[in-house]
Amino acid sequence: MAEGFAKAYYPTVTVTSAGTHPTAVNPLAQAVMAEIGIDLSTQYAKSIDPVYFAQADVIVTLCGDARDHCPVIPISARHLHWDLVDPAQATGSRAEQLTVFRQVRDQIKARVAELKTVVPIEA
Q1: CA nearest to 43, candidates 88, 12, 3, 13
Q2: Fewer CB near the last or first residue (10 Å), C or N of the chain?
Q3: Is the predicted pLDDT of residue 72 greater than 90, yes or no?
Q4: Any idea where the Phosphotyrosine protein phosphatase I domain is (predicted)?
C-alpha cells in the first residue's frame, strides 16, 4: 500500500517496496486501495535487494518485523520507522479484516503524504 501511495503522490521519485519475507500482494490490500482509486495490480512482492537497499536515500520500515529483520540500514540513508499493525495478521470475518486493512491504509496514506515535510522530495 505504501508503494502505491508513494508512486501516486511522488511520480518523479523512484519508489519500490520489498519485504523480509515477501509473499503475493494481499488481495485485501488490493481491494481497499481500489476503493480509493489506486490500482495495485501491477505491483508484486519483492525481496530486499541489497544493492538497491545500499543506494536508497530514504528507507521506511512499516512494522516491527521489518525493523527487526531488515539488513543494516546504510548510514547514508534516512530511516523512518512507522510502527503499524500488519493488516495481513487481522483475524475475524472478511468485513472485520477489511476494516483493519482500511485503518492501516489510511494511516499509511497520511504518512506518505507527510513524507515531503520530513525528507526532501521533489513531487
Answers
A1: 3
A2: C
A3: no
A4: 1-118
What pLDDT, on the 0 to 100 scale, is given for residue 94? 97
Q: Locate cell 503475493: which residue? A: 24
63, 83 in Cβ contact below 8 A? yes
What the block records as the C-alpha cell of 24 is 503475493
- For domain 2-115, the question of CATH label 3.40.50.2300 is answered with yes
Neighbours of 87 (CB within 10 A): 23
User: Does the pLDDT of residue 121 top 70, yes or no?
Assistant: no
Cell of 63: 512494522
Where in the chain are the domains?
2-115
Instruction: Please say if the pLDDT value at position 65 is more than 90.
Output: no
Give 17's DSSP letter.
-
pLDDT of residue 68: 64
DSSP code at position 87 = G
Alpha helix stretches (DSSP H) within 10-93:
27-34, 50-55, 64-69
Distance CA 73, CA 45 (A): 20
Phi, psi of 88 (to 5 degrees): -65, -15
